């Protein structure tokens, strides 16, 4: 698609927004519904955009909608343009001294308890800023960050660095065996990987940072563990631990505000590769909202984080 700058003179951000939503859904009815407009309005705006660009962006028939080569080329450019416009508006919102706006935070489940204190304090100081928290896997959150759907992500440092992401370290700590306060292990000061072979496990699903770190640590040994349950919901995992003698493996900070649970350090996990580094992940070369900087600063000074940095 070789258009001169003058060819885009009549293009509107609204048209790019409509185009992007239709490109994501590939369904006129669904896109119109999500945009809160009529299907005929959407069709008219897309047709007008195609006329301005002098080439089709979508292939349409009675069964499906598909992007043309021109549409595929325009999509990342449209997203970047819309993001730039959002950044402009975000910077103007900052002039209101955090009296409005939204803050979009992505968090892995290991960070949910750590950030709770800061969310409460932030909302108390800035009650007019809406905070949206998305909890998911690191892979999914990083994709959302790169798509500018999140302002930052709270998660552990990944094994492989992402060149598009800046990771600011918050704290370092170890993996631990997590049990309920009445478990036979609850009084122990530490435990070894070898000893853990004697207990039934309820683990987070493969793909989480805690699980990845644990799997890497045990790969060096010929140990065999009795994994009875795997799940990706921390609420259910903690509930199961409180009602049974299962053991799980998580970062010790995960249960910072969880009553009835104990973290027993694993003594033979000592190397840097076996430790976990809590980070704030931001998109490089992207504007950082004042609300995001304020939240990150408050998080770094929270007792939940300082507990693992002192």
Topology of this protein?
Layout: H1 13-25, H2 28-35, H3 39-53, E1 58-60, E2 65-67, H4 69-94, E3 102-107, H5 112-125, E4 130-135, H6 138-146, E5 152-156, E6 165-173, E7 175-180, E8 200-204, H7 209-218, E9 226-231, H8 234-242, E10 248-251, E11 261-265, E12 276-283, H9 290-300, H10 303-306
Parallel strand pairs: 3-4, 3-5, 8-9
Antiparallel strand pairs: 1-2, 5-12, 6-12, 7-10, 7-11
Overall description:
Helices cover 38% and strands 21% of the residues. Strands 4-3-5-12-6 form a 5-stranded mixed sheet, sandwiched between helices. Helix 1 packs across helix 3. It starts with 12 loop residues before the first helix and ends with a helix. The N terminus is likely disordered.
């Amino acid at each position: 698609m070789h258009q001169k700058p003058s060819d885009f003179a009549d293009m509107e951000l609204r048209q790019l927004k409509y185009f992007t939503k239709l490109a994501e859904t590939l369904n006129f009815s669904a896109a119109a519904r999500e945009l809160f407009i009529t299907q005929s309005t959407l069709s008219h705006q897309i047709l007008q955009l195609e006329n301005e660009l002098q080439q089709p962006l979508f292939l349409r028939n009675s069964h499906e909608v598909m992007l043309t080569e021109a549409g595929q080329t325009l999509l990342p450019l449209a997203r970047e343009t819309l993001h730039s416009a959002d950044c402009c508006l975000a910077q103007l919102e900052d002039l209101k001294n955090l009296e409005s706006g939204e803050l979009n935070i992505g968090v892995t489940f290991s960070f949910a308890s750590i950030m709770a204190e800061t969310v409460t304090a932030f909302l108390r100081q800035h009650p007019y800023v809406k905070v949206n928290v998305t909890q998911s896997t690191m892979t999914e959150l990083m994709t959302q960050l790169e798509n500018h759907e999140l302002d930052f992500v709270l998660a552990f440092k990944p094994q492989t660095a992402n060149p598009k992401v800046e990771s600011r370290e918050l704290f370092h700590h170890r993996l631990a065996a997590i049990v309920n306060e009445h478990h036979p292990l609850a009084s122990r000061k530490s435990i070894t990987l070898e000893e853990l072979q004697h207990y039934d496990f309820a683990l987070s699903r493969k793909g989480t940072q805690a699980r990845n770190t644990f799997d890497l640590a045990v790969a060096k040994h010929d140990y065999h563990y009795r994994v009875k349950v795997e799940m990706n919901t921390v609420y259910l995992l903690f509930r199961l631990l409180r009602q049974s003698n299962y053991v799980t493996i998580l970062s010790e900070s995960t249960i910072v505000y969880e009553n009835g649970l104990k973290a027993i350090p694993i003594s033979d996990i000592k190397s840097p590769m076996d430790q976990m580094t809590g980070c704030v992940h931001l998109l490089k070369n992207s504007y950082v909202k004042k609300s995001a900087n304020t939240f990150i600063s408050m998080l770094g000074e929270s007792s939940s984080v300082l507990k693992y940095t002192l």
